[in-house]
Specification:
This protein is 18% helix and 32% strand. The protein has 247 residues and is α+β, with helices and mostly antiparallel strands. It has one domain. The strands form 3 sheets. Strands 9-8-5-4-12-14-13 form a 7-stranded antiparallel β-sheet, with helices on one face. The longest helix has 23 residues, at 2-24.
């Protein structure tokens, strides 16, 4: 009987620990896949956490070289009033390639970690016309973001943004049930990009525009392509809207 009592005691303790560990994690999670990219959205009472990951080499290099602008729209209409742009200054980063040591090595390797370490710390946050520069690791907005390499072979690029809900919406109840998220590659502005890049610069109006050529949806497939193929003069370009599906 004493042995059975001890077993019941440990079962209760372990069960309680498991419950507490679950509570500490974000409650909801939504996974959307488009082309080579996975988008995961989680939230708890105070924050929304977006994780963008890909193992596609060209896409990873494009993200690291040019950075991303992520739009958050609580109306579901692909508005560009709220966004986080990183890096703030879109100066393309050149990948560091290691030269092959002998003729048997066909492809040079890329030091992704070195590229990530060399990225600037400044980002931009826009909230209904108010544009502010901030540091990605320590700032008054309580926003954190950054890149890291993951996976068993460290070949998956992961970009994460953690942002307070009150930095996304003006709704005092923090209702994000209609939240849509737009992800765009930071590219130099030209005539063909005026619509996509509008609202992503402090010198422009803060995003009373819709999602440009971005197409919404909850996954890949015809009509939902959020990644554009690269050419000799243009890198892989992400241009994608999706519903976060948060309760």
């Amino acid at each position: 009987m004493r042995f059975i009592g001890l077993l019941l005691f440990f079962a209760v303790v372990l069960g309680t620990t498991s419950v507490h560990a679950t509570i500490q994690e974000p409650i909801n999670a939504s996974l959307i896949t488009d082309q080579h990219i996975n988008y995961t959205v989680k939230d708890d009472d105070d924050y929304v956490i977006l994780t963008i990951s890909t193992s596609h080499k060209e896409t990873s290099l494009s993200i690291l070289r040019h950075g991303l602008t992520v739009y958050f729209d609580d109306t579901g209409d692909k508005e560009k009033n709220v966004f986080v742009k990183y890096p703030y200054h879109s100066t393309p980063q050149r990948p560091n390639r290691s030269r092959p040591q002998n003729n048997t090595e066909e492809v040079t390797s890329i030091d992704y970690d070195e590229i990530i370490d060399d990225l600037p710390g400044e980002a931009e946050f826009a909230f209904y016309g108010d544009h502010q520069e901030f540091h990605k690791d320590l700032n008054a907005f309580d926003i954190s973001l950054g890149y890291q390499m993951t996976g068993e072979e460290q070949d998956v690029l992961q970009y994460s943004i953690k942002i307070p809900k009150n930095r996304i919406t003006q709704d005092k109840k923090l209702d994000l049930s209609k939240l849509t998220i737009g992800v765009f590659t930071n590219l130099p502005q030209n005539k063909s990009d005026n619509e996509d890049m509008r609202g992503s610069s402090p010198n422009m109006r803060g995003g009373n525009q819709r999602g440009g050529r971005g197409r919404g949806g909850s996954g890949g497939g015809p009509g939902n392509r959020g990644e554009r193929p690269s050419t000799q003069n243009e890198p892989v370009r992400i241009d994608y809207w999706f519903h976060a599906d948060l309760d």
